Amino acid sequence: MNILVTGGSGFLGINIIRRLYNKGYKELVSLDIVPFDYPDKSKIKHILGDIRNKATVESVMKDIDVVIHCAAALPHYSKNDIFTTNVDGTRIILVSALNNNIKRFIHMSSTAVYGIPDRQPLYESDKKKGVGPYGKTKVLSEQIAEEFRKKGICISILRPKTFVGPERLGIFSLLYEWADTGHHFPILGNGKNLYQLLDVADLCDAIYICIVKN
Questions:
Q1: Residue 114 known to be catalytic
Q2: Residue 117 to residues 51, 79, 111, 181, 186: CA-CA distances in angstroms?
Q3: CB 12 within 8 A of CB 69
């Protein structure tokens, strides 16, 4: 089975590539605008390219069976990059997937589609009301995925919360730095607020299930 991971050089990308390789999947392809600079470089095919480039996407998609679409412009990118990557890029990938008879497509969305929640817990069926360019584009990209699902592509949509794990803590590394240096932790309100984090290993498990399920 040939598997394409868009955004393969990112934190989630490298983790799912390693998970799949260890599961016995050896025909793995990474497509990213960032070089694939990991020790695993010799184990997979890595292509430096932009999902917004139709010719690049079409050339990469040949002989692919499964697409794991992780590529996205994050909130700190410019508004133009966020919309052209998350919306236009997603459509380009899906058009190519349809043209090449892709068997299964896993689309990485986000809980950002729910905007700023006014209650907990959230449910899959809750209204999507993305806030800011990133949240809005995640809503739009899901709509595009649903559009192509109706055209016959088997598409799974995952909405992970902020995920962390080995090699990447993001802004949460500050907490560990404060603990290491003996600083106090700021508390908002009465200290009983909860913030959910997701282990990247659990997210990779979910993606794997999407690949192997009937």
A1: no
A2: 31, 23, 10, 34, 22
A3: no
Q: How far apart are CA 125 and CA 41, in angstroms?
A: 40
Answer yes or no: are the C-beta atoms of 174 and 186 closer than 8 Å: no
Show me where the domains of the chain are located: 3-166+197-212
Q: Cis peptide before 35, with omega less than 30 degrees from 0?
A: no
Q: If you ran DSSP here, which 8-state letter would residue 186 be given?
A: P
Annotated catalytic residue: which of 21, 114, 134, 195? Answer: 134
Angle between helices 54-61 and 90-99 (to 10 degrees): 40
Fold type of domain 3-166+197-212: Rossmann fold (3.40.50)
**Quick one: tokens of 50?**
């932009």
Q: What is the pLDDT of residues 103-136, one digit of tens each?
A: 999 999 999 999 988 887 889 999 999 999 999 9
CB-side neighbour CA atoms (13 Å) of 3: 29
